[in-house]
Every structure is written in structure tokens, then in C-alpha cells.
TrEMBL record:
It comes from Dixella aestivalis. It comes from the Eukaryota. It is a single-pass membrane protein. GO terms for molecular function: proton transmembrane transporter activity. This is ATP synthase complex subunit 8.
């Protein structure tokens, strides 16, 4: 059974490492957290809807 040459192992390791890093960078920068301004607006909106008028 023939063995794979070390240069081939190195090139595969570099290829998969670059692919893994690119995948993680894309996932990290595609996530858009909500700004605090939106949270405050939502809080104010929910407090207005929860007022009881008995």
C-alpha cells in the first residue's frame, strides 16, 4: 500500500486550515448583534403595551 508523501500531507493541512479559518471568519462577521438603541426602543414599546387601564 503506497504511503502519501509528506509534502502532500503539508499541503492538505494548509488547505484545510485555510478553509477552516475562512469559514470561521465568515461566520463571525456575518453575525449582526442588535444595537442598544433597538433594545431601548423595544423596552419602551413593551412597557407601553403592559399598562393596565382598569
Amino acid at each position: 500500500m503506497p504511503q502519501m508523501a509528506p509534502i502532500s500531507w503539508l499541503s492538505l493541512f494548509i488547505l484545510f486550515s485555510i478553509t477552516f479559518i475562512i469559514f470561521n471568519v465568515m461566520n463571525y462577521f456575518c453575525y449582526l448583534p442588535k444595537s442598544p438603541e433597538q433594545k431601548n426602543e423595544k423596552k419602551l414599546f413593551t412597557s407601553k403595551t403592559l399598562t393596565w387601564k382598569w
